[in-house]
Amino acid sequence: MWRRSASFILDNRTPNDVASASRPESLALSPPLQSSAMADADANSAYYQTRAAHHGVVTSDWLAQAQAAVGRNPDDLGSVVASEAEPKPASDSGKPFSVIEEFNNWRKQPDLAEAVAAIRALASVIMSSEATTMMELEIELKKASDSLKSWDKTSISLTAGCDLFMRFVTRTTALEYEDFNSAKSRLIERAEKFGEISTKARRIIAVLSQDFIFDGCTILVHGFSRVVLEVLKTAAQSKKLFRVFCTEGRPDRTGLRLSNELAKLDVPVKLLIDSAVAYTMDEVDMVFVGADGVVESGGIINMMGTYQIALVAHSMNKPVYVAAESYKFARLYPLDQKDMAPALRPIDFGVPIPSKVEVERSARDYTPPQYLTLLFTDLGVLTPSVVSDELIQLYL
Amino acid sequence: MAEVQGLVNELATKLRKRKVEGSRETARLTAELFRTVISQQRVTSAALVEVVRDVGQKLIAANPVELAVGNIVRRVLRIIRDSDLSLEVGGLTLVPQGDDGDIVEEDDKPFLLSDAISQTILHQPSLVAQLESKPNLVRHFEGKADKTPRSWQFKHQIIEGVNDLIEDINTCHEQIADQALELIHQNEVILTLGHSRTVKKFLYAAKEKKRSFQVYVAEGAPKHLGHVLAKELAEKHLQTTVISDSSVFAIISRVNMVIVGVHAVMANGGVIAPVGMNMVALAAKKYAVPFVVVAGTHKLCPLFPNNPEVLLNDMRCPSELLSFGEFSDCMDYSIGSGAPLLNVVNPAFDYVPPELVSLFVTEIGGYHPSYIYRLISDYYSSEDLVLQQKPAS
After folding, report:
1. Is the same domain home to A305 and A373?
2. Where located (chain B) (predicted)?
């Protein structure tokens, strides 16, 4: 009675045939929406665009945007970049250096986290800077960091990454360095090291969480987090017997992509629609989510639906584990769901909606710390109360 | 050297045969053993850390469920690291330009560094440490064997640290009992389970200070140690009532506070306690009765519990529950298919999650379960969490 039986393996019910009868329109690309949707598309947060770019989710709105972009004057994009370059000090004569461009270049790598891309971009600012004193360099960096943050006001890990790097710069300049160049090279070296942290952090988190995944367990996963995927990959590779429930993750369809990846690893996967979470929660042993940001209270900001799942899990006494790297710790303290910069995204219902019907388009929610059990970070396994401690030590 | 080996083996055997009763006794014996081991050693810190790790692993393997052994091993390792770092820092005269006046006391205090600095540089990976590059301590370790006056100082500091630790373990009950007056008020009704020496001394202290209160003692099946506690309390003229474990839920609404002792406190604030405690904790939560845990800091374990009901549990002999004579035909393995129809499970411990605990009373004060991580970072170093790994990583 102390052993868990992996009943889902012993169960010899035939699996349901893959519902090929699902509505084709929800899966196929629907024709581009009307111009009203186009106006909305402009209000889309860059946050969503990042997600879409990474996940390769093709929706009708994205398609519409892409078509429109191709049709638009190709110089438009260039001018956006150039206008960012203008306020930069004219210290770089010759080709204008744009931190946004640099950031975008880094961000395109699918494996790189946003915060790390930001830090790399800032590092390249240092490298290409012609400042001769620390003060000047700091000012340049501050400007670059501000422009990065304002380019996407909604992304928390971007803000957190920039803040972390700026904090490091200020701390370093407090120490005495004999000459400017050695200080500069130290900053660059540190930034490069930071870049390695991204992949290293995921490995550390994966190793830390292995103890908590036991044979025969059922894990519920929401959203597509590369960290959580790494955790599950490591568990699968060490031949643990477990199965995963993926929520569909409308409208990003993160669940579909995640189930693809897991099927490649031969992990038994079950897809649920988002509303089926409470229905299946009694079979679940633990919930695993990633985080877009970890806030000061110890709560997390993650894809829409996380709060709901955490509430259900808490009411049924199931542990909720969060896998997040340490650079996602942000100096935010949301008091309620609306307390953050809104990140909107288009939602495609497959059928046209009357224009006077409002749609809740927020892309993320805030889960308070009392619903989270443990956070797995590269700093170790933490309880939510440790987060504010870490942030205080760093920033104050 | 061989004598030390003999002592180590002796303690390991005692642990394996479960001859040592209680975590305080275990902690004390382990700490005293380490004092002997260290005083016999050469002084390079790297070697010392290795030796302590080896001995520690042996002792832990003898009784993995007795978490106090691992706690003491890690405490000693932290003492060694602190002494090393403080000497290193003192030697380089890179003393922190702190505003605290007494920065360098002569050789008495092993902790010369302020908490923040020592924590960031030395012990925990933290956001701050990610930005600074941590000094590689292994490098520092090697070049140290030659300086004789420093090495004598180093050993002296460590032995002092271990002596302090032993002293703390010995006096923990008194220091915890000092806080009894703040918690127990007049005309209170207190519930406890089983027989915990810490709780006993706690209640004695309140009684001596002329508080009048009653105690309900749940007997703590199957060992029924609650009976022993009840008798001792009654001898001290405390109004005591013995109840069975199953009636805790019925009685809890008449109780003001639950005070219990535990086997170990885990890093997330959860506790490993004698079996039946989870029930008491749930009852207390339901009726909003404060659930107070009294525990010395030697019970504080830096590990997180995963599947504690199985992995951190001791399955004891079934004869404590069933007398073999009456049920022998059901329990006989040689009949039929060889698998007995009647299984008897006798776990020694229960896991109580942190949400059910209201307060931890330790010898250094009272803390909420969410604060336990701070105590752990004060007492333990994160490099020592996994003892099997080699330090040079």
Report:
1. yes
2. Cytoplasm, Cytosol
Domain count, chain A: 2
* Contacts of B136 by beta carbon, 8 Å cutoff, 6+ apart: none
Mutate to test the interface with B, among A286, A394, A395, A396 (most CBs of B within 10 A): A394
The CATH code of the domain that includes A94 is 1.20.120.420
Q: For residue range B257-303, what is the model confidence (pLDDT) as tens digits?
A: 999 999 999 999 999 999 999 999 999 999 999 999 999 999 999 98
User: Using alpha carbons only, what angle is made at residue A183 by residues A177 and A185, rounded to the nearest 5 degrees?
Assistant: 150
Residues A219 and A346 in one domain: yes
- Are A268 and A289 in a shared domain? yes
Considering only CB atoms, which chain B residues are within 8 Å of A214? 306-307
B306 → closest Cβ in A193, A211, A327: A211
A377 shares a domain with A233: yes
**Per-residue pLDDT reduced to its tens digit, B91-126:** 543 334 333 333 333 333 333 344 444 444 444 566
Do A310 and A270 lie in a common domain?
A: yes
Q: pTM (2 decimals)?
A: 0.78
Q: Is residue A21 part of a domain?
A: no
Nearest CA in chain A to B129: A394
Q: Based on the domain organization, do A226 and A279 belong to the same domain? A: yes
Q: A95 and A198, same structural domain?
A: yes
Return the number of CB contacts < 8 Å for A and B: 66
Question: By the CB < 8 Å criterion, does A288 face chain B?
Answer: no
A272 and A339 fall within a common domain: yes
CA distance B6 to B20: 17
What domain range includes position A221? 204-395
